[in-house]
């Protein structure tokens, strides 16, 4: 049976102020913004290269990051096309005033990455597998 090929994943972020969050992603993280604020459930779609992020307006409840709510994990992960892109993105985002939580470094799992925190406190990992022998250990054996 033929399998469909997936092309993209779009994280859906809930925000207490969809406009503020969307403008941060546009102004600081360099995304293009498409506004849908007049829809029954206000949202914005953000694009950068082949990456898509959707931000929706919270109707109730408290918006928390995975780190705040569960004490672990990123809220999403961005993967530059090549390892050199990690440092390029780091410099670009640092210059635009992004809140960097951890500078670029190798992880124990073989990825070269850094971490930033967005305007809503979400943790975003940005990295690329650099040591495939560590990252994919056991996958192809």
Helix-strand topology string: EHEEEHEHEEEH
Cα-to-Cα separation, first versus last residue: 25 Å
**Please, what is the average pLDDT?**
93
Radius of gyration: 16 Å
How are the strands of the biggest sheet laid out side by side?
1-4-3-2
Provide the β-strand percentage band: 25-35%
Largest sheet: 4 strands, mixed
Helix-strand category: alpha/beta
The counted number of beta strands is 8
Low-confidence stretches: none
Q: What is the count of DSSP helices, taking H or I runs of 4+ residues?
A: 4
Give helix % range: 10-25%
Overall shape: globular
Structural commentary:
The chain has 141 residues and is an alpha/beta fold. The chain has four helices and eight strands; from the N terminus they run βαβββαβαβββα. It has helices at residues 18-27, 66-70, 84-95, 132-135; strands spanning 12-15, 32-36, 43-48, 51-57, 76-78, 99-106, 111-117, 123-129. The protein has a four-stranded mixed beta sheet with strand order 1-4-3-2, with helices on one face. Strands 5-8-7-6 form a four-stranded mixed beta sheet, with helices on one face. β2 and β3 (43-48) form a beta hairpin. The two termini are 25 Å apart. The model has no long low-confidence stretch (mean pLDDT 93).
Which properties best describe this structure?
141 residues, alpha/beta, four-stranded mixed sheet, 33% strand
Short description:
This protein is of the alpha/beta class and 141 residues long. It is 22% helix and 33% strand.
């Amino acid at each position: 049976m033929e399998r469909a090929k997936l092309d993209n994943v779009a994280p859906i972020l809930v925000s207490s102020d969809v406009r503020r969050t969307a403008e941060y992603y546009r102004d600081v993280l360099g995304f293009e913004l498409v506004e849908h604020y007049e829809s029954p459930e206000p949202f914005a779609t953000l694009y950068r290269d082949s990456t898509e992020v959707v931000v929706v307006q919270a109707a109730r409840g408290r918006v928390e990051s995975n780190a705040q709510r569960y004490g672990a994990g990123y809220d999403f992960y961005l993967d530059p096309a090549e390892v050199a892109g990690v440092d390029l993105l780091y410099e670009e985002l640092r210059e635009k005033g992004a809140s960097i939580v951890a500078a670029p470094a190798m992880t124990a799992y073989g990825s070269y990455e850094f971490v930033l925190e967005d305007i809503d406190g979400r943790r975003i990992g940005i990295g690329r597998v650099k040591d495939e022998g560590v990252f994919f250990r056991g996958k192809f054996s």
